[in-house]
Amino acid sequence: MNKGKESKPHIGIFGRCNTGKSSIINLLTGQSVAIVSSQPGTTTDPVTKAIEIPGLGPVIMIDTAGLDDTGELGTQRVLKSREVIRNIDMAIVVIAENSFDHIEEQLIDELEEHGAPYLFVANKTDLIGLSTPLKLMLREKYGQDAFEFSVLRPDNLEDLIQTVRRTVPESAYQKHSLLGDFLRYGDIVLLITPIDSEAPEGRLILPQVQAIRDVLDNDCVAVVLKEREVDAFLKKTAIKPRLAVCDSSVFLKADASVPKDIPLTGFSVLLAYHKGDFKSYLQGTPTLSRLQENDRILLLESCSHHVACDDIGRVKIPRWMRSFSGKNLHFETVAGLNKLARPITDYALVVQCGGCMITRKQLANRLKPAIDKGVPVTNYGLAIAWMQGVYNRAIEPFVGHANTPESYL
Predict the structure, then answer these.
(1) First-residue to last-residue Cα distance in the chain
(2) I want to staple 126 with a disulfide (CB 3.0 to 4.6 A). Which of 150, 296, 372, 389 is the partner?
(3) What does the H/E/C string look like for the chain?
(4) Is the CATH number 3.40.1260.10 carried by domain 10-172?
(5) Can you give the pTM of this predicted structure?
(6) In terms of C-beta distances under 8 Å and separation of at least 24 residues, what long-range contacts does 65-70 make, across chains too?
């Protein structure tokens, strides 16, 4: 689940054991995606599948274990199912045989807490119809009618697909542009991409690829070069780019090479504006200048990758932060979307990576516990810019836009 594509809605399907969750997924997709069995506990860990739903389009569908699973393993399966909630754009809540109590109520509470819209599907209505008291309760308490359905007689399958389509928020379909707010037709964008020990063999890292594609999507021109070629390029061509974007590790070199009348920012800062809580990042970044002896710092990497000897998150940032603060700091790194080992309030600062591999919703929910508890948050690019003294320049391109109050410059 840590490699969701932003343009694909994430839909989780929840319910008790044997309510027909997997059968509904297979019907929605028109193929045998999920294993179907009358044996309780057939679905163990959440199963994620990129699929195409007729009439809906490409989605990430997540099949989960039964919420009433029992025993030691069952309890762990339920916890895994509930962890899915923070990563989805919409939920299908399957009920059957009029069973609805604290299990479903707790699920709905968590969905509402994380801002995930949901749809009730009353399955197996060919055996037992939805009772009038339950129908009225759902309408009065949750403001919606359950969609009555039968996987054995799916006569209204098309109606179900359309109901799912209406429930998925429009924001889940929208592809947000990285650079669209800053470019005009035909603009030239300078992308400064160092090739060092962290660069993958034979290719660029994902944020750089995303930036190139976004420049092209906005009908502009991308000029890609290494940091040591910037001076010669600008001198020989006399081209004045609309914007320059650099890797965070070469902020100082880029700041010296790119004239001050050309806006300059970083790939990670772009991602912070694009899909992070930018205002919270701007509020939290100055905490770097107020760290105390033995403070604990949480580094959040939203993907799992091979750790290089000079890894930006695990090696360079901790080294820079200790040097910048002059304090003995303690660092913990959590990769992917794994749970934290300790309470979020144990940390003086949370530093999130750019989040290029996850959705806006996943990143927002990843930071939500810290923001709710008042723990300062920043991201890799903003933190590096602050410590290297180029912070004001790195955020200047964003001043005046909706997510950036001018008071932070």
Answers:
(1) 36
(2) 150
(3) CCCCCCCCCEEEEEECCCCCHHHHHHHHHCCCCCCCCCCCCCCCCCEEEEEEECCCEEEEEEECCCCCCCHHHHHHHHHHHHHHHHHCCEEEEEEECCCCCHHHHHHHHHHHHCCCCEEEEEECCCCCCCCHHHHHHHHHHHCCCCEECCCCCCCCHHHHHHHHHHHCCHHHCCCCCCCCCCCCCCCEEEEECCCCCCCCCCCCCHHHHHHHHHHHHCCCEEEEECHHHHHHHHHHHCCCCCEEEECHHHHHHHHHHCCCCCCEEEHHHHHHHHHCCHHHHHHHHHHHHCCCCCCEEEEEECCCCCCCCCCHHHHHHHHHHHHHHCCCCEEEEEECCCCCCCCHHHCCEEEECCCCCCCHHHHHHHHHHHHHCCCCEEEHHHHHHHHCCCHHHHHHHHCCCCCCCHHHC
(4) no
(5) 0.73
(6) 65/17, 65/41, 66/15, 66/16, 66/17, 66/18, 66/19, 66/21, 66/40, 66/41, 67/14, 67/15, 67/16, 67/103, 67/104, 67/107, 68/16, 68/17, 68/103, 69/17, 69/40, 69/41
pLDDT digits (tens, 9 = 90+) for 117-161: 999 999 999 999 999 999 999 999 999 999 999 999 999 999 999
Specify the CATH architecture of the domain 277-408.
Answer: 3-Layer(aba) Sandwich (3.40)
Segments of the chain assigned to CATH 3.40.50.300: 10-172
Which part of the chain is CATH 3.40.50.11420?
188-269
132: left (phi over 0), alpha (psi -120 to 50) or beta: alpha
Residue 197 has what pLDDT? 60
CA 112, CA 143: separation in Å to the nearest integer?
A: 13
pLDDT in tens, 338-381: 778 899 999 999 999 988 878 788 888 889 999 999 999 999 99
**CATH domain 188-269 topology:** Rossmann fold (3.40.50)
What token pair was written down for 263?
Answer: 């806006």
Contacts of 390 (CB under 8 A, 6+ apart): 251, 252, 255, 264
**Which regions of the chain carry the CATH code 3.40.50.11410?**
277-408
Tokens read off for 173: 């379909």
Report d(CA 33, CA 52) in Å as an integer. Answer: 11
